[in-house]
């Protein structure tokens, strides 16, 4: 990472995108094959993250081995649905649409005090129900689409967006996802629109977060690498922005970990017993 005092822009996060794309394609192939899968399922929201994931999966596995799912609710933006279709067409992936309205509204009818934000979370979890069921139907592993910025901020629906077992974008900031999207040929309409989870009408990510992604990402990178606040503010960021970013990261550690398990043995999963892929059996 280039660190240049006095140049507060996203260029400090620039990557070699052809190299990153090749590495992520290999990652997808190896992680799926190690689990016994040849196909992937991607919930296509019409946003840049899921579109990049679709592109990488199609390149890694062949578009015929990728199942894209459009999972709209009646309150979803028509633009989101159109952009999901546009991304699938761009990368040659078949798109299947499943309307989650009956699932969500069936619960909403029994929950008169359901707030818009809670209902949005129900939508996100309903989408994962469909995604994992389609995974079973097609024997295709779900791919996650969450980026590093959202994961660090805890800005995702717990046990929904974070549920897929393989996530190629989890170590890329939003700024870097945009750069990778341009390299992969994601349609401009998707790359340059305002990011939104589309869980509530009119919702945008940056309004929810209180800071623009391109500014948050540079603050995050410096904060995670141990630079003090005065150094970061010296790059042109306000003390309020730095405090907001740190607060969001520090308050959401629990969302980035598996369940806390009381240790009562010497074979605790995730503590002493490593992940199954570390113990692949030879036939």
What do these coordinates show?
Belongs to the NAD synthetase family. This is NH(3)-dependent NAD(+) synthetase. It is an enzyme of class 6 (ligase). With 283 residues, this protein is of the alpha/beta class. The chain has one domain (2-200): HUPs (Rossmann fold, 3-Layer(aba) Sandwich). It contains 12 helices and 4 strands; from the N terminus they run H-E-H-E-H-E-H-H-E-H-H-H-H-H-H-H. It has a 4-stranded parallel sheet, with helices on both faces. Helix 1 packs across helix 7 (174-184), helix 2 packs across helix 7 and helix 4 (101-108) crosses helix 5.
| Strand-pairing-aware structural class | alpha/beta
The fraction of residues in strands falls at 5-15%
Shape: globular
Helix content: 40-55%
- CATH topology, by name, is Rossmann fold
Rg value: 20 Å
CATH class: Alpha Beta
Average pLDDT taken over every residue: 91
Q: Spatial order of the strands in the main sheet?
A: 3-2-1-4
CATH architecture: 3-Layer(aba) Sandwich
Biggest sheet overview: 4 strands, parallel
| Span between termini | 43 Å
The H/E string reads HEHEHEHHEHHHHHHH
pLDDT under 50 segments (min length 5)?
1-8, 279-283
The count of β-strands is 4
């Amino acid at each position: 990472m280039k660190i240049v005092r006095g140049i507060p822009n996203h260029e400090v996060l620039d990557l070699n995108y052809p190299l990153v794309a090749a590495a992520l394609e290999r990652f997808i192939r190896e992680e799926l094959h190690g689990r016994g899968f040849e196909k992937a399922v991607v919930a296509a929201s019409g946003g840049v993250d899921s579109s990049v994931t679709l592109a990488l999966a199609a390149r890694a596995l062949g578009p015929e081995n990728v199942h894209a799912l459009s999972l709209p609710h009646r309150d979803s933006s028509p633009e989101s649905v159109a952009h999901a279709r546009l991304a699938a067409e761009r990368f040659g992936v078949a798109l299947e649409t499943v309307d989650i309205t009956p699932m969500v509204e069936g619960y909403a009818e029994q929950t008169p005090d359901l707030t818009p934000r809670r209902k949005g979370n129900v939508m996100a979890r309903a989408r994962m129900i469909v995604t994992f069921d389609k995974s079973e139907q097609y024997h295709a592993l779900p791919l996650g689409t969450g980026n590093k910025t959202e994961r660090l901020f805890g800005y995702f629906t717990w046990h929904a967006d974070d549920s897929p077992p393989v996530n190629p974008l989890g170590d890329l900031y939003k700024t870097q996802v945009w750069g990778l999207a341009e390299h992969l040929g994601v349609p401009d309409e998707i790359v340059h629109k305002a990011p939104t989870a589309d869980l509530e009408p009119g919702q945008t990510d940056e309004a929810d977060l209180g800071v623009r992604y391109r500014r948050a990402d540079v603050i995050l990178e410096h904060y995670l690498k141990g630079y003090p606040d005065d150094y970061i503010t010296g790059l042109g960021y306000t003390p309020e922005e730095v405090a907001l970013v740190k607060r969001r990261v520090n308050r959401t550690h629990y969302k980035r970990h598996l369940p806390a398990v009381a240790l009562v043995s010497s074979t605790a999963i995730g503590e002493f017993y490593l992940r199954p892929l570390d113990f692949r059996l030879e036939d």
